[in-house]
Each structure stands twice: as C-alpha cells, then as structure tokens.
Design a protein that fits this description.
This protein is α/β, with parallel strands linked by helices. The protein is built from eleven helices and 22 strands. The chain has a domain of 240 residues: 3-Layer(bba) Sandwich (FAD/NAD(P)-binding domain). Helices cover 33% and strands 28% of the residues. A hairpin with a 4-residue loop joins strand 10 and strand 11.
C-alpha cells in the first residue's frame, strides 16, 4: 500500500535517552515547533517506568550537574521518581598499590567545591521512561517503527519506515546507539578498538554504609567502581578480562561476594550480591565524521568511551545541547541541513569527545599496566593531583560540566539539592 509522505522539519532516529532529549531540547529551546519534529524508533511509545518500590535495573548512569540541568530544562528530571536517583557527594579514587586514604588516592568532596553534590546515580530504565515522557509532554511526534531505508538529496531527507510510510525533513539526527543501523545505512564509517575486557554489573549490599560516595579502585586487571544507591546498596561496575569475567560470573553468590570484598580492598566491608550479574564488552569507538549533508550523529552513534569515569551518557547529552545551540543560531535557522552549519557542531563536539576518549584510553592503559615502575608512577600521580588544589578543582569542574565548552544555556542555572 502506498502511503502519502509526511513532511516535517527534523527527524530524530532512536528510542533511548539521548534521542528523546535531543528532540526535547529542540522544542524546549524553540528551535523547532512541537508538531514539526518526530522521534522515530522501536520503543518510543513505551509507558511509565516500574513503580519506585521495584528493584533497580542493573544499568545505571552517573549524571553530571550539567546533564541534570539539561534534563531539568526539557522536563525529564521531575519525571524521575526520587527512589530512582541518588545524589553523590564524594568520589574516592585510589590505586591498588595504595589505599583509599593513602598517598596513591584522590578524593573529591562537594563541600570543597561549594556544590550541593558532584552528580547523581540514576537508574537507566527510569531515566529512559522519563526522557520519553518529557518528549511526549512537549508535543514531540512519536513514531513507533524501525527504519527501512534513507535517501538524501540537495533539498531534503526521505526516511522510509519498515511499514512503507515515508517521512521527509530538512535534517535527520541519528541517535540509535552504538551499533546504529541508520549510521550504517548512511555509510558513515567508524574506527576504534576493543579493550579485551568485560564490565561486570550488579547491585550489592555492603557491610559499611557508602556515605553517598562513589568509590573506584584501580586494579591491575581493570577499574572497579561501587556507586551509591538510595536504598543503601551500591551498584557495581567491575572491568576484567574476558576469561576472568567468565570465571567470576560462574561463582556462587557467596564466593563472588568474597572475591568482590577482596578486590574492593574491603573499603565497604563484606559485599553481598542482591541481583544477578550481567556483563558487556568494553570498547573505544568513534565515527570518522559526525555530520554529512542533512545528517548529524549524536551520542553513542557518534562515540563510545571506556566507562571508568562514567562519562558516556554525559558526553551524549552535551552533544544534544551543542547541536541545539548551533541550530538555534539565527544564521542557521533556514539552513539546518547545510554542511557548513552542521560542521560547526562537528568541530565543537568531536574535539571535546576525542579529548575525553583519548584521556580515558590513556588512563585505561596506564592503570592496566602491571609494571612495578608504572605502578609507582600511578601512585605518585594520584597523590600529586591531590596536593594541587587548582588542578584538583579543575578536574572536578570539568567532570561536573562547570568547565569546558558547553552551551551558555547550561551554564547559568544553579544545581538544586536532591
């Protein structure tokens, strides 16, 4: 059956957090009218999250204050149940050759920075539902469908859905994830490498309280993080080799708890599993170009980084804010799909994202080395940062989004206490 093509201004492809926020911020900033932008993907019409009393999804995100401000701007943050987010006030990072209070440790405290918190740990399932709900509340058109094909000419983008319907727009924004079928259809190439590591994720109950602190220990086998949850448990993200991931996953819960207690340096006392263990492979991946005529990539479709600093989603959300800032510029209003306009976004975000990706890649290699000299350098380096207040504040500020090249509309709003 032939369907008449529907014409709108912007199509955002994807059903995840980044896609929903991308569509929402364009409406919230009045770049696009609500009935002139569509969010297209499988799952965009999904309903509300599970009740707040239900157990946390294993996937969690560490959101920076800048990301929170963006979620507040689009109306997603108020839709997050309080039981699905936990502000954290401190972060403690230390090398396995030292201790959390030793000379090879580094602690960031919100009180020292004059901020109410350093960020928030948020449940992934609830955040996704809140982001979609905010998009619906803003009037974004939701189209539940996979993509059958895409064609681009000088005047427009034509998106063919799997049921045969067609959408025509001036610009398509691709936000359909790491594997991004749409990016592949467009022939936009990627590069990168695997880390020969898997991340084990689970939620654990600990003998000692987490004290609203994110704990991260760098082991020769990879980083181990314990992130605070509002019910007193911690979310585990433990990076190990493929073989070690298989071995640890096969342990019974009691034996895994013993192994985790030892690997975490007993920082929170005895650890007890409260959920199954899941794992996923780690990699560095980036698109060789973020834009083409009438096309822009954002989020995981454009870049994937090592999770050791929890920056993946934060980078994607800043992509959304930056692209909105570029498109709302009066000089771009009638030329959204023009390569010259979109390249402003690419120059802005590609340099920032590659800087973070390169830094995280270097840290992963540095902390993955078992050479004793490198180990001593790691300890000395962490200790040195801790003794240099300006550098320490600068690192914290960049992670929180109060430094760095972010849009002006995210700079001036205060961060409110959770």
């Amino acid at each position: 059956m032939n369907h008449p093509a529907r014409s709108i201004d912007v199509i955002v492809v994807g059903a995840g957090v980044t896609a929903a926020v991308m569509a929402s911020v364009l409406v919230a900033r009045k770049v696009v009218a609500p009935d002139r932008i569509a969010l297209v993907g499988e799952g965009v019409s999904a309903g509300a999250p599970a009740p707040a009393a239900a157990d946390w999804d294993l996937r969690v995100f560490a959101l920076s204050p800048a990301s929170r401000r963006l979620l507040e701007l689009v109306g997603a943050w108020p839709l997050l149940p309080e039981g699905k987010r936990c502000a954290y006030e401190r972060m403690c990072v230390w090398d396995a050759e030292s201790g959390p209070d030793g000379r090879g440790s580094l602690t960031f405290d919100c009180a020292e920075l004059g901020a109410p918190n350093l960020g928030a740990i948020v449940e992934g399932r609830a955040l996704q539902a809140a982001s979609r709900g905010a998009a619906r509340a803003l009037g974004v058109i939701g189209i539940e469908s996979g993509i059958g094909g895409i064609a681009i000419d000088e005047s427009q983008v034509t998106l063919r859905l799997v049921d045969g319907r067609e959408l025509k727009s001036a610009l398509v924004i691709v936000a359909d994830g790491t594997e991004s079928p749409t990016r592949r259809m467009l022939g936009m190439e990627i590069a990168g490498h695997g880390y020969a590591q898997d991340a084990l994720v689970a939620h654990v109950r600990t003998e000692k309280p987490h004290r609203r602190t994110a704990w991260q220990r760098f082991l020769p086998t990879g980083p181990l993080a314990l992130l605070p949850l509002p019910d007193g448990r911690s979310s585990l993200v433990w990076s190990v080799s493929h073989d070690e991931a298989l071995r640890l996953s096969a342990l019974d819960p009691a034996a895994f708890g013993v192994a985790l207690t030892a690997a975490s340096g007993d920082v929170l006392g005895a650890c007890e599993l409260t959920t199954p263990i899941a794992s996923f492979p780690l990699k560095l991946q980036y698109a060789l170009r973020y834009v083409d005529a009438r096309v822009a990539l954002v989020g995981d479709s454009a870049h994937v980084v090592h999770p050791l600093a929890g920056q993946g989603l934060n980078l994607g959300l800043m992509d959304c804010a930056a692209l909105a800032a570029v498109l709302e510029d009066p000089s771009a209003r009638t030329h959204w799909g023009a390569p010259a306009v979109l390249r402003r976004y690419e120059r802005w975000r590609r340099s920032e994202n590659m800087l973070v990706a390169t830094a995280l890649d270097g840290l992963e290699r540095l902390f993955d080395s078992g050479h004793p000299l490198i180990g001593k350098l790691r300890v000395a380096g962490l200790g040195a940062v801790g003794r240099l207040p300006y550098l320490k504040r600068e690192l914290a500020a960049r992670a929180m989004g109060t430094r760095g090249d972010i849009p002006e509309f995210l700079r001036d709003e205060s961060v409110r206490e959770s």
